Amino acid sequence: IFPDHPFTKKPLETRMGKGKGAPEFWVAPVKRGRILFEIAGVPRDIVEEAFRTASHKLPVKVRLVAREGFGGE
After folding, report:
1. DSSP character for 9?
2. Where does 1-73 have alpha helices with state H?
3. Left (φ > 0), alpha (ψ -120 to 50) or beta: where does 51 sit?
4. Which of 39, 41, 7, 3 minimizes the C-alpha distance to 23?
5. So what's the pLDDT on residue 25?
6. pLDDT value of position 2
7. Could you tell me which of 64, 60, 69, 70 has the C-alpha nearest to residue 44?
8. Residue 50 maps to which CATH number?
9. pTM
10. Would residue 73 count as lying in a domain?
11. CB 39 within 8 A of CB 72
C-alpha cells in the first residue's frame, strides 16, 4: 500500500474557479477487507498484544485473521 493519490485543497477564503487547489497531502485509498499486515513465525499472544497497542494509533478497526497450516503458529 503506497500513498499515490494527491488530496488537493484550495486555500481558505478563495473565490471559486481558477483551477484545482494545491496538493495538501497524499493518501492511499484502502477498501474494506484489505489485509494490511502479515506476520509469520510469531506466537499468537505476542501478535495480539502488538496489534492491540498498534490499533490505538490506527484510524481503522483492527481484526486478526489466522490462516491454518500456513507459516507460524
Report:
1. E
2. 44-55
3. alpha
4. 7
5. 93
6. 86
7. 64
8. 3.90.1170.10
9. 0.56
10. no
11. yes
Domain interval for residue 40: 5-56
Extract the C-alpha cell encoding 6: 494527491
AA letter at 37: F
* Cross-strand partners of 6: 26
- Indicate the SS3 state at residue 25: strand
> Per the structure block, which three cell numbers stand in for 14?
478563495
Nearest to 63 by CA among 30, 39, 35, 42: 35
Alpha carbon distance, N-terminus to C-terminus of the chain: 26
| pLDDT tens for each residue of 12-42 | 878 888 888 898 999 988 888 888 888 888 8
In a domain, 31, yes or no: yes
Q: Of how many residues is the chain composed? A: 73
The more confidently predicted of residues 56 and 13 is 56
